[in-house]
Design brief:
378 residues, mainly alpha, 67% helix, globular, disordered C terminus
């Protein structure tokens, strides 16, 4: 889900900020934990049974980050739609592209072995051209069948466009109205479906738009609240990390809780509680309190790799499922190996691909002027 979101700091804009620090370390750690939960949910849902709800936290964080980063520049300097969307594309596209290419390579590798399938070949041939342009596939049920989680990045771009064309112009009551309208669409569907794990398919696009709109507008509302002069370090920031890990089911998934079904009426209500209430509370707390100094390096690392982890983890799922299901490696060990490999690949992707490519693109589009590496919002 982001995204992200992206990774050197939570602040994205290349403009001075009135905040006491340019980086929200607690939010870095929370975003990284959310990305881990998504990756584990896709690998083996029992390892993070509520991991899909992290997508809504990513969208809320994006709304917060973009408002903090760009609103003053838009208001005072006339930051235009083209410049804004170009900056967003530079931030999101390199890792999006890498994820699509890695997933394609994984699928081709499977087909070259004993898993040849005309259906898979057609999926690649017909979906890849549109997906490479960061557009949904027009011929499949899934919006991004090659890299399924990429649907959130498409809606991230859609929300970014509405941010600069509409949300920046609205008073706070307008943002509240968007939240209420989005919730009016979202809540009944989640209750009927008994899960908020919705949005990756064409038939689900209205709900995907509602999920995005609610959380984006909510993040912008949080960003409009008065910011503290100082963000104290301490136990509140650490509890924010523990809380999001607990709510996404990471403790349950590793034997520290009770397993629960994927879909029950209670799960739908739980998902809505996270989306409508708990994520806003955690976003407010995470933006006002920092983790203790001991946890800061871990939080920063998780923040640095979170968007890359979200973008590339889908490509690693089938190889490690083969390790678990066919080779017989224990499920918990397979999950740990999968996450360790995904974090390593993500760090390499950030340092050796994403940052150099974005520097090059920024130099091209900014006339050779150096542009800072910004943090994503997935």
């Amino acid at each position: 889900m982001s995204d992200d979101g992206s990774m050197a700091a939570v602040a994205e804009a290349p403009v001075p900020s009135p905040r006491p620090s340019s980086r929200y370390v607690t939010l870095d750690g929370m975003r990284g934990i959310a990305a881990l939960a998504v990756a584990l949910f896709h690998f083996d849902f029992i390892r993070a049974p509520h991991g899909y709800v992290a997508v809504d936290f990513f969208f809320a964080l994006s709304g917060f980050v973009l408002w903090q980063a760009y609103y003053a520049r838009w208001k005072e300097r006339g930051y235009g739609v083209v410049a804004f969307m170009r900056q967003r594309a530079i931030r999101l596209y390199p890792l999006f592209l890498l994820g699509i290419l890695l997933c394609t390579a994984t699928m081709l590798g499977q087909m070259a072995g004993d898993d040849w399938s005309p259906k898979t070949a057609h999926k690649i041939a017909y979906s890849l051209p549109a997906n490479l342009l960061m557009l949904p596939s027009p011929v499949t049920q899934a919006l991004f069948p090659i890299n399924l989680p990429a649907w959130t990045l498409f809606f991230e771009l859609v929300a970014s466009f509405f941010m600069v064309t509409l949300l920046f112009r609205l008073p706070w009551i307008g943002l509240v109205a968007i939240c209420l309208l989005s919730a009016w669409v979202l809540v009944p569907v989640v209750i009927v479906r008994q899960s908020a794990n919705i949005g990756a398919l064409w038939k689900e696009w209205p709900v995907a738009l509602a999920r995005t709109g609610f959380s984006f507008a909510l993040g912008a509302l949080v960003a409009r609240l008065p910011q503290p002069a100082v963000r104290p370090q301490g136990w509140v920031g650490a509890l924010c990390l523990l809380a999001i890990a607990y709510l996404l089911g990471l403790f349950v998934g590793f034997g520290l809780g009770v397993s629960i079904p994927v879909k029950t009426p209670a799960i739908g209500k739980y998902d809505l509680m996270c989306i409508l209430l708990l994520w806003p509370i955690l976003l407010v707390l995470g933006s006002r309190f920092e983790v203790p100094a001991l946890l800061a390096p871990v939080s920063k690392f998780l923040g640095d790799v979170s968007f890359a982890l979200y973008a590339v983890h889908w490509a690693l799922i089938d190889p490690f499922k083969w390790l678990k299901d066919d080779v017989g490696v224990p499920a918990l060990l397979s999950a740990l190996l999968y996450i360790g490999t995904a974090l390593t690949v993500s760090w390499c992707a950030v340092k050796w691909f994403d940052e150099p490519v974005r520097r090059k693109l920024s130099a091209i589009f900014h006339g050779g002027r150096k542009s800072p590496i910004s943090a994503p919002a997935v």
